[in-house]
Amino acid sequence: xxxxxxxxxxxxxxxxxxxxxxxxxxxxxxxxxxxxxxxxxxxxxxxxxxxxxxxxxxxxxxxxxxxxxxxxxxxxxxxxxxxxxxxxxxxxxxxxxxxxxxxxxxxxxxxxxxxxxxxxxxxxxxxxxxxxxxxxxxxxxxxxxxxxxxxxxxxxxxxxxx
Length: 162
Known about the structure:
Layout: H1 17-46, H2 58-68, H3 71-96, H4 100-126, H5 129-153
Helix pairs in contact: 1-3, 1-5, 2-3, 2-4, 3-4, 4-5
């Protein structure tokens, strides 16, 4: 006969470890965004975008930045794509765990990161300062969302998730 009252879960799936995982992902996203922010400043100040990239569409600009761009621009674009994947991962996990505030904040951060990526591609295509400003401001929004995630998820408990 099946015991439907069983409530124990494997140690790696214990309920206390779930918020710890989301805290770690949020902290990793914060660190990645700070690195991305610094790379963006380097690209903006010290890298000349090739003239052939001006006027290109968003996907073309990203493709050229990854394939033929100066090294700092290539790393910046690649990290941006990884950050989008990390943001999607966090939204899905928070939604599956039914942690609504974290899911909403993570979704807002995802939208900000995608907006920053589109603004960055537009900046590569046009070279206008508005694209660069939008990238910086949207990165700040994403950073704020992940910082609030850490607050909402509370302090890490000793031994939880270890």
